[in-house]
Write a structure and sequence with these properties.
Radius of gyration: 30 Å
Oligomer: single chain
Structural class: alpha+beta
Helix content: 25-40%
Distance between the termini: 57 Å
Strand content: 15-25%
């Protein structure tokens, strides 16, 4: 059916998105953040709401893992804003050229958290993750699910796609590794027979190349191919021979659909290499060609039968002649008894179909159905205009394609394998064999936003390593000299925050690269001017609105503080009431917070160790005791020991979600160790008084689960 591609990313009723691993050739970062993910996450606010939208998006991403692989030379940064989305290039040479368009989406339901109830959806398309790919081009797409009650064919296709992606991207980021691990844990919880006769996932490169388009001992009568790009060269007989082999050794009728172009006489003709048509004719095929209809799928105005609302409709909906570009890739092969349909990223080119050893990384789905089941399959290619049989020179029927742009016209540095950052350090992994003599890396300092300035961290020069022949790694602390020079006595210190991209320059070339952030769980949704104190953390777990998240007009970065905000003076109520009442009442809020999140490793890390977590509350409790702040209630050692003991007990006993490979237990152990270390510091300060024996007995009682 004709529908919006973004709808394939919508969560099923009662589910929410927990994980995305996707591949694309071209990547438009702001489209991913502002168009696609809001649909997948079920956000209520549109991007036009500015800061409110960013807060909602970042809040949703704190418990959603998103990793997108892309071809390096095709990165469009746009207005990228979120540090929680991993954008990972796959440099050609280390990997096949990434041309596949695949998304693996894991959905979970809070009402039934068992792995067997989770859904893994596979989406394959011809569309890149760009606005034009999902909104204006002529594209094809399909989705199948590994879900309770799904067919064995669908389940097999999803699981084969996960295996293909893991093999393509290994080794990858830590986040992708545990995303795929969680998907495989879902598979292990629901064993299913492997069946791929009627439906199979096709991932290239593979040892057998593109699969046959016909059953054994059968031949294809009609082969229809839609492709926006074609093979190049003066002799295309090898491509025609490969198609004949895929069709069982004989070519019947071959129909080709290409992009539409208007020639000098104003006639619409398809863009298809004449030499390809000639080679197919020489192989004995009957060749018919058609152009893609540029107005396919465009909206038009339906006149009202009564005429009463014609004028209103004319003002509200504009008639469009349309100008959609063909980007769909599809092969439809009708044989003696069966029909096969392949859709995905496969252009009709040598590298696109895996006809050469250095083929692309491609992916799609292939259906094999009985002819009587295929009455509507032709609708997949309904965007073509009328067919014209080529009866004489092909040049009179088709137009020669122009030369395609190279894949690396943006000057992407193929010597950089990864670029990562945490809150105060930049980490680079490079290839020593082709590293230039000198590479300069610059990154903008987001703190300059606070003073309405455009400033950068101090540049980092990385010379070619001399002590290694392979992959090397280096890191550099982020320092900002401009901030030290401009800081006044009254200025408030701001946290060190790297930008989302880095500028790399070498040999007179400059490129902008996305940065993958480590420790994303430490990034708050909104970066406050001052650290959240013990009282504000307790208030947050009590369900009170954080002071730094008050309503604000205007557009801002998700980690920007609100301009002009000043924190009100804290109340200095009775310390005993605060401890006994508010802190104890906040403990159920901590338990609920851990229960509501943690369906991904990222979410569980954020819930246990993030800026609003029991571990952070424990650290703040110890800081409040060791470094009393003016105007804050004075903490006693007994009060601090009480808080840390209750937090320790909670972490030891609170139910955590079941993540694969014992991840939840390891994270629990880390959290318990962190709070135990802080509690030991407090116990050492306990005075030797009569009441101390009672306190120590209480502490000992709660030290073991």
């Amino acid at each position: 059916m004709t529908r919006r591609l973004v709808e394939l990313w919508e969560a099923p009723q009662g589910y929410r998105l927990a994980s995305v691993v996707a591949t694309t050739y071209e990547l438009q970062a702001d489209f991913l953040e502002e168009d696609l993910l809001p649909v997948a996450l079920g956000l209520r606010l549109p991007p036009a709401r500015g800061r409110d939208f960013r807060l909602e998006l970042e809040s949703a991403l704190t418990n959603t893992e998103v990793s997108v692989f892309f071809h390096p030379g095709r990165y469009q940064p746009g207005l990228r804003r979120s540090p929680r989305i991993d954008l990972v290039p796959l440099p050609e040479g280390r990997y096949p050229k990434l041309h596949a368009k695949v998304a693996l989406l894991r959905f979970v339901t809070p009402s039934a958290r068992e792995r067997a109830n989770q859904i893994i959806r596979l989406v394959v398309t011809s569309a890149n993750l760009t606005g034009s790919g999902y909104h204006s081009n002529i594209e094809v797409a399909a989705s199948v699910c590994d879900a309770p009650g799904a067919s064995p064919e669908s389940i097999t296709a999803v699981r084969e796609a996960v295996d293909w992606l893991e093999g393509l991207t290994r080794p990858s980021t830590d986040q992708v590794s545990h995303q795929l691990r969680d998907m495989k844990a879902v598979f292990a919880s629901s064993p299913a027979p492997r069946r791929n006769r009627r439906l199979r996932f096709v991932g290239l490169p593979s040892g057998i190349g593109f699969p046959p388009l016909v059953e054994p001992r059968e031949q294809v009568d009609v082969l229809t191919i839609a492709s926006p790009f074609w093979p190049s060269g003066g002799d295309l007989s090898d491509v025609a021979s490969a198609l004949r082999r895929l069709c069982g050794g004989r070519l019947g009728t071959v129909r080709l659909i290409g992009p539409a172009i208007s020639d000098e006489q104003g006639e619409i003709r398809p863009v298809i290499p004449p030499e390809l048509v000639r080679s197919l004719l020489n192989q004995g095929a009957t060749v018919e060609v058609a152009a893609a209809n540029p107005s396919y799928g465009c909206t038009t105005v339906d006149e009202d039968d009564e005429g009463e609302f014609d004028g209103v409709a004319g003002r509200r909906v504009s008639t469009s002649d349309g100008n959609r570009s063909l980007h769909a890739k599809a092969l439809l092969a009708i044989g003696d008894t069966t029909t096969r349909l392949a859709i995905g990223s496969f252009n009709l080119s040598r590298r696109g179909l895996g006809l050469v050893s250095g083929g692309n990384a491609e992916a799609g789905l292939l259906w094999t159905l009985r002819n009587e089941e295929c009455s509507r399959l032709a609708d997949v290619l309904s965007f073509g205009t009328s067919w014209h049989e080529v009866t004489h020179e092909p040049e009179e029927f088709v137009v020669e394609p122009e030369n395609y742009d190279s894949d690396n016209e943006s000057g992407w540095p193929d010597f950089i394998l990864s670029l990562r950052a945490n809150r105060d350090r930049l980490i680079i992994e490079g290839n020593a064999t082709n590293w230039p003599d000198e590479v300069v890396i610059r990154m903008r300092d987001i703190r300059s936003r606070l003073s309405n300035r455009e400033e950068w961290f101090d540049p980092w020069t990385v010379s070619a390593p001399t002590d290694t022949d392979g992959v090397f790694s280096a890191s550099n602390p982020l320092s900002a000299s401009w901030l030290n020079q401009s800081r006044t006595r009254d200025s408030q210190p701001c946290p060190a925050l790297p930008d989302l991209e880095a500028e790399v320059s070498w040999d007179g070339t400059v490129a902008t690269l996305p940065v993958v952030f480590e420790d994303k769980h430490l990034f708050p949704v909104v970066e406050p001017r001052s650290r959240e104190d013990e009282q504000s953390l307790v208030a947050w777990f009590l369900g009170l609105r954080a002071a730094a998240e008050v309503e604000s007009n205007g557009f801002g970065h998700s980690i920007d503080p609100i301009r002009g905000y000043s924190e009100p003076s804290p109340a200095t109520g009775d310390i005993l009431s605060y401890l006994v009442r508010d802190f104890v009442h906040a403990l159920p809020g901590i338990v609920n917070h851990l229960a509501d999140t943690g369906l991904t490793e990222l979410g569980l890390r954020a819930a246990l160790f993030g800026h609003r977590s029991p571990v952070e509350l424990a650290r703040e409790s110890l800081r409040a005791y060791q470094n009393p702040q003016p105007g804050k209630p004075r903490k006693t050692v007994v009060a601090t020991a009480f808080q840390l003991t209750e937090l320790l007990r909670l972490l030891q006993t609170v139910p955590l979600p079941a993540l694969a490979d014992g991840v939840a237990d390891r994270l629990r152990d880390e959290a318990v160790a962190a709070v135990s270390s802080e509690l030991n510091e407090v116990i050492a300060d306990l005075p030797t008084k009569d009441c101390t024996d009672v306190v120590r007995s209480y502490l000992a009682l709660h030290r073991k689960p």
